[in-house]
Write a structure and sequence with these properties.
It is found in: Cytoplasm. The chain is α+β, with helices and mostly antiparallel strands. The chain contains 7 helices and 10 strands.
Amino acid sequence: MCIRMISLSYIKEIFIKKIDIIMENQVNVMPRIGEKAPSFEAVTTQGKINFPSDYAGKWIILFSHPADFTPVCTSEFMTFGKMSKEFEDLNCQLVGLSVDGLYSHIAWLRTIKDKIDYKGMKNIEIKFPLIEDITMNVAKLYGMIQPGESSTSAVRAVFFIDPQGTIRTIMYYPLSLGRNFDEIKRVLVGLQTADNFGVALPADWRPGDDVIVPTAGSCGVAKERMESHDKNLHCYDWFFCTKKLSKESVESKLGK
């Protein structure tokens, strides 16, 4: 009996270690900021796609939702649908995903357009592709399945991918919390602005706010900045300087 108990205890310990190793490996293969977006082929409500190559030269927002015909997801899709022209003007392609089938997607999107009137939004037609992922292959590829939250539904993930196919920002939300789409747009505008002007952006930045210039790389540059009389440059200390960048200048380069 004692030997049997020891054996079961040993087996349990080995099993737990193997599970830990598997989970660690899954985390390691999840795509990260600065890496190329993993490629895949998929069936969508707009036909078959090769991702991300079909959208080369564009920014992409790839986002997942837990399930069709659910209230939080419906509110999100209506908001994204209403704002889709704003993202299009920023040279950005929206691509949605859930682990539901194609016919479920089609029926849900038709219901949204024909029946739902929410916060003044109605007759919202979703024209961007929504990926069928009943195998969960794409969701797993992008780390959208988080077992601690759900092992059968994707969490609310958002991937920002630049025109070169590089992941630039990742957001995750739990099943119970809808996303802030103004923030999603702000992030996209911020990424484009940082690239266009070679600057960084402070907390709560909006177009027209001051931007952060690169930190001084030498004592000479630091001294020069602190003693500068440039009215467009403001230094709080040698490592923290901002400059003015007009809203018009920012908007003139968005989507380029």
